[in-house]
């Protein structure tokens, strides 16, 4: 299962009497990476649990192929909801931002893995948390809502601490920032998001 998520999935595994084992994520979808899952399997592995994150569907085909080779179950944690009017509106808002944002890396879209944009998560690339967090503070000063979507990967929390290094998980935790894209976001608010992000010129540097 992924560590880059909320603790809910790990808690569900523990409540079922099993032990959560964490694998890394794909850097584009931010969902469980089949290659990392394959490397994490042991003789005690019972199932693979993908989490569809921020509205992006995990690579179920790839994960099922890995699981089938070992006779394992694939158990989705909270399958994605069907497309509705709110989803269509979020997709329209996301398309507006995708076409206009500069200085941040917008969420990639894969036709075979549709995105419903439950959250619109961009990357602020750089040297880690000071850069992303400085960018976030500057956006809030310009009255743009934003938040860090995953503050701490699950494997680094007190309840599920593991001594392992998940490179893409750590990078996502350092770089990702959620911007407003919900169905109630107005055109004026979207324009403010674009103006604020682009006015910053991308990455903010913090004085040493």
From TrEMBL:
InterPro entries: DegT/StrS_aminotransferase, PyrdxlP-dep_Trfase, PyrdxlP-dep_Trfase_major, PyrdxlP-dep_Trfase_small. It comes from the Bacteria. One of its GO terms (molecular function) is transaminase activity. Keywords: Aminotransferase, Pyridoxal phosphate, Transferase. Belongs to the DegT/DnrJ/EryC1 family. This is DegT/DnrJ/EryC1/StrS family aminotransferase.
